[in-house]
Amino acid sequence: MTLASKALPAILVVEDEPLIRMEAVDMIEDAGFKVYDAASADAAILMMEQYDDIGILFTDIDMPGSMDGIKLATYVRDRWPPVAIVIASGKIDYDRMLAPLDSTFFPKPYPTGQIVKTLKDIASRLT
After folding, report:
1. In what order do the strands lie in the sheet with 35-38?
2. Which residue ranges form the domains of the chain, and what is each CATH number?
3. pLDDT digits (tens, 9 = 90+) for 27-72
4. Quick count: other Cβ atoms within 10 Å of Cβ 100?
5. Over the Cα atoms of the chain, what is R_g?
6. pLDDT, tens digit, 9 for 90 and up, residues 69-114
7. How far apart are CA 123 and CA 106, in angstroms?
8. C-alpha separations of 112 from 34, 67, 74 in Å
9. What is the pTM for the complete model shown?
């Protein structure tokens, strides 16, 4: 069975900048995934509670609200362990030690081809 014939997990994009969020959503939808989006970690947690088809969290680090993307990723890993985590940021001083184990990191601006390949690789392991 090929990846195309399997049901792909939905991806939750969490990004506070509307234009960057729209670009990420478009990129991921163009790759064939169902996408939900949120502008904050708080909204993302509500979506995780509402939609059980989310298999991948794709989050920025710097966001307003009660937690940043690293804390959100840690929360999601603790509450929904099977969800894969992809973190993206323009921060130069990103510290892998703070991110949950087995998370994937991409710098901004997004390397579109690499991100799509990684998401498809993750999806093939999840489905």
Report:
1. 35-38, 10-14, 54-60, 84-89, 104-107
2. 8-126 (3.40.50.2300)
3. 999 999 999 999 999 999 999 999 999 999 999 998 888 999 999 9
4. 17
5. 13
6. 999 999 999 999 999 999 988 875 666 657 787 888 888 888 889 9
7. 17
8. 17, 26, 24
9. 0.90
Structure tokens at 60: 């920025």
Amino acid letter for position 125: R
What's the 3-state SS for the chain? CCHHHCCCCEEEEECCCHHHHHHHHHHHHHCCCCEEEECCHHHHHHHHHHCCCEEEEEEECCCCCCCCHHHHHHHHHHHCCCCEEEEEECCCCCCHHHCCCCCEEEECCCCHHHHHHHHHHHHHHHC
Bond prior to 82 in cis (omega within 30° of 0): no
d(CA 127, CA 80): 16
